[in-house]
Structure formats: C-alpha cells, structure tokens
Design goal:
This protein has 126 residues and is of the alpha+beta class. The protein has one domain. The protein has 5 helices and 5 strands; from the N terminus they run αβααββββαα. A 5-stranded mixed beta sheet has the order 1-2-3-4-5, with helices on both faces.
Length: 126
Amino acid sequence: MLAVSLALALLAVAPATAQTVIDGSDATLGAEMSASVMALVGRGLKSPAEARYGRLRRGKASAICGDVDVTNRMGAHVGPRPFVADPESGFAGIMPDAAEIRHPSSMAQYQSFQRTLTLLSANCDD
C-alpha cells in the first residue's frame, strides 16, 4: 500500500509530457486549430508527446507552417525543423534531412518527402 501511495505521489510531481508550443505562437491560430495541427504532425512522429512546436503561422493557401523539435532515439531534442500541414487534405510533413532524402526507406516515403518539400516551398517561405 505504501508503495502504491509513493508511486502516485511521484506521478503527481513528475512533469507531464505533452506536445507544447514553446513561443505562444499558437495564439495566432487559435487553440482548436493548433491542437489539430499538432495532432496531424504528431501522427508521423515516434514520440509525439515529446514534440515542441514554435513559429506556428498560416501559410499561403490553407497550409499551416511552423517548426517542430522532436527527440532522437536517446530521448534528447534534436533542434527545430520546419514543418507544413495541410488540414484540408490531412497531410503533414517535416523537412527531411539530407540523409533521409538520400536513403528513403520506401518509394512512399520518398514521395512524402517530395510533397513536403514542395508544400514548404510554395506555402512557408518567409
């Protein structure tokens, strides 16, 4: 019984991990749209609860642009990378790095990278 009480107390004190917007830019999109975009981007992440978002903004057309900082296999954040989300089509992609582009795991992943790069260029260039 004491162990259960101690475990519950530690859970209450431990920091909650959830997708967060670190710079307050979600205010420009509104809470509902921001949550929708984070869920859409999060579908492609290994650890969506650890993601940190920033610079959220409306792009051209119906795209939402921003940065997302994800964790690597060791659990460390790797730094922000641009992303684009198109809520109307249900597509979101993060800017692939050079190694990912050179060595995609499948044709579908390669096509997704190309779509992401095209959408970023067309909608998110500042």
